[in-house]
Amino acid sequence: MRYTIEWKLSGQPFLTTRGKLVDAVVKAVAHYNEIKPQLLTTGGTSDGRFIARMGAQVVELGPVNATIHKINECVKASDLQMLSRMYQRIMEQLIA
């Protein structure tokens, strides 16, 4: 049997090392959730792989979502408000 496989890699894996961005995210999450977050790479496919390719640091932080990518996907409004406060705190730390 003869066959040919053509494959185009569209996104490289990435890892953002500890630094100002990661530290700001950890501090913001810890401040509002009163827990130290785990830094994991066990998530699924990420669009961050396209951004990281441009040399940017990438950290993904979003709401806990049991219905993500399912029928009737939803998130609590209070979780979005908390996430908004975390994002603001992260930005304040980065420009300080």
Automatic annotation (TrEMBL):
Is the keyword Hydrolase in the record? yes
Q: Name one GO molecular function term.
A: succinyl-diaminopimelate desuccinylase activity
What UniProt keywords are attached to this protein's entry?
Hydrolase
From which domain of life does this come?
Answer: Bacteria
Main EC class the enzyme belongs to: hydrolase
- What EC numbers are recorded for this enzyme? 3.5.1.18
Listed InterPro entries: Peptidase_M20
- In Pfam terms, one family for this protein is Peptidase_M20
What name does the UniProt record give this protein?
Succinyl-diaminopimelate desuccinylase
